[in-house]
Design goal:
Keywords: Cytoplasm, GTP-binding, Nucleotide-binding, Protein biosynthesis. By secondary structure, the chain is α+β, with helices and mostly antiparallel strands. About 25% of the residues lie in helices and about 30% in strands. A hairpin with a 4-residue loop joins strand 17 and strand 18. The longest helix has 14 residues. The two termini are about 30 Å apart.
Length: about 525
């Protein structure tokens, strides 16, 4: 099997996402990675928010306005002899559920940390999602061209806060105005930093051997202190172990500056050399191997209006096995219908190209006129359903009020479609006609309001509501569930998918309910069925 065309193509592929806290430099590193793959000729940094050159990977109107990437886009580019699929994730104050779900469609992740700040709250939340599948993580400590914290302290923090062993691969020589490059621990060489090459591809100068006269001259006054620090690092830090990395137990750590386009190539090489190719996937029925010939794939995200000129929605499908060919017939398992796919898309940020073929590990876009939902499986006929594509319990809630009461039909349609797409979650309380929206981050509410206005011509207002969290409720005992439903009506709602949900006003209330109703399961995630 290993010499089959599928196995060859699968072996070439690396599908990964970038995880970071807002402003750690994720969009800039995305640009630099695309530059490495020569997918763009000039990297457009997002720092100067007024500049004309918007970052190539940020594309909806709100992103252009705010200099942030709200939607998760997919970029494919060749690198060395392989093919990279980079899944971008929202990177500002507000991630959304999309961000979490994107991590179910990758085989590895690149964690970007701000060297001045270290591990931040959103990084922790995203690492928790990566843990659900033991995703291998490569780490990049960014912003070495500014003041950073002590690198040893940063490694300790990664280990303590994220509970993963950190193995430095490169080590920084100075920082800010004294930043001279990095020392590669296993290759015994210095990779020299020269400022001013942020927007172009350049070969870094390399000085072999730390004990060479050239290395001493390059480090100057920093030399003796650096050698002492290095001894400490080599004595105290883990050596890189690829088996531990593949199990999600250890992360290789690189240092650099994305803005200065330094260190990014080393990270991309690490993804190609060490990160896994497309992996097997569990379905309810069996485990699917990527090298199997029949096509299978699942929908992890739905995006409306990628092209303002088209009122369409695109379903993003991660191919799990086999090969997509233009014009092939696919079986949509949930609906039981066969569909001919003549026009799947491949993505390069906002460039949408029609695709002739794609392989396991690739992401393709299917045109969706309202029939495809998140979690749907496509096959060549086999009836399977992939697992591990959850809804995550929202953390923030708002009640929706219409400015024009006559538009309630459009409001419901708009919210239903936006909920299917994963832009928000919608809940309909049992006891009244309220509509409650749930989100993982505040900006999702702004996005929903803007899109309702733009796409559905509906203006809405939000009001605060006393909901602390939502839990999907289920029970093997129908009588108990009925009894619970009668007693807890005031706090029960049905979500957009028709699932019974408990809206807890406080953490204490939820704990009490869980104690009082041991036969009822209160779930913080819900599989898409």
């Amino acid at each position: 099997m290993s010499n089959s065309p599928i196995a060859k193509e699968v072996g070439k592929r690396r599908t990964f996402a970038i995880i970071s806290h807002p402003d750690a430099g994720k969009t800039t590193i995305t640009e630099r990675l695309l530059l490495m793959g020569q997918a763009i000729s000039v990297a457009g940094t997002v720092k100067s928010r007024k500049s004309d050159r918007h970052a190539t990977s940020d594309w909806m109107a709100m992103e252009k306005e705010r200099g942030i990437s709200v939607t998760t886009s997919v970029m494919q580019f060749p690198y060395r002899d392989g093919m990279i699929n980079l899944l971008d994730t929202p990177g500002h104050e507000d991630f959304s559920e999309d961000t979490y779900r994107t991590l179910t469609a990758v085989d590895s992740a690149l964690m970007v940390l701000d060297g001045g700040k270290g591990v931040e709250p959103r990084t922790i939340a995203l690492m928790d999602v990566c843990r659900l599948r033991d995703t291998p993580i490569v780490s990049f400590v960014n912003k070495l061209d500014r003041d950073i914290r002590d690198p040893i302290e940063l490694l300790d923090e990664i280990e303590e806060v994220l509970n993963i062993k950190a193995a430095p691969i490169t080590w920084p020589i100075g920082c800010y105005r004294d930043f001279k490059g990095v020392y590669h621990l296993s290759r015994d060489c210095i990779i020299v930093y020269e400022p001013g090459h942020g927007h172009e591809r350049t070969e870094s100068k390399i000085i072999e051997r730390l004990d060479s006269a050239e290395a001493r001259a390059h480090l100057g006054d920093l030399y003796d202190d650096f050698v002492d620090q290095l001894e400490l690092v080599q004595g105290a830090c883990h050596e890189f172990d690829q088996a531990a990395f593949l199990k999600g137990e250890m992360t290789p750590v690189f240092f650099g500056t994305a803005l200065g386009n330094f260190g990014v190539d080393q990270v991309l090489d690490a993804v190609v050399d060490w990160a896994p190719p497309p992996q097997s996937r569990d379905s309810h029925e069996r485990t699917v191997e990527p090298v199997e010939a029949p096509f299978t794939g699942f929908v992890f995200k739905i995006q409306a209006n990628m092209d303002p000129k088209h009122r369409d929605r695109i379903a993003f499908v991660r191919i799990c096995s086999g090969r997509y060919e233009k014009g092939m017939k696919l079986h949509h398992v949930r609906t039981g219908k066969d569909v001919r796919i003549a026009d799947a898309l491949t993505f390069f940020a906002a460039e949408r190209e029609h695709l002739e073929e794609a392989w396991a590990g690739d992401i393709i876009g299917l045109h969706n006129h309202g029939t495809i939902q998140i979690g749907d499986t496509f096959t060549e006929g086999e009836k399977i359903g992939f697992t591990g594509i959850p809804h995550f319990a929202p953390e923030l809630f708002r009640r929706v009020r219409l400015k024009d009461p006559l538009k309630s039909k459009q409001l419901r349609q708009g919210l239903q479609e936006l909920a299917e797409e994963g832009a928000t979650q919608v809940f309909f309380p049992e006891r009244n006609n309220d509509i409650i929206l749930g989100a993982v981050g505040v900006l999702q509410f702004d996005v929903v309001a803007a899109r309702l206005k733009q796409e559905y011509k509906v203006e809405c207002l939000y009001e605060p509501i006393n909901v602390w969290s939502a839990r999907w409720v289920e029970s093997g005992d129908r009588k108990k569930l009925e009894e619970f439903s009668n007693k807890a009506t005031d706090n029960l709602a049905v979500d957009g998918g028709g699932h019974l949900t408990y809206l807890a006003p406080t953490r204490v209330n939820l704990s009490l309910m869980e104690e009082r109703w041991p036969d009822i399961k209160f779930r913080a995630t819900r599989e898409h069925h």
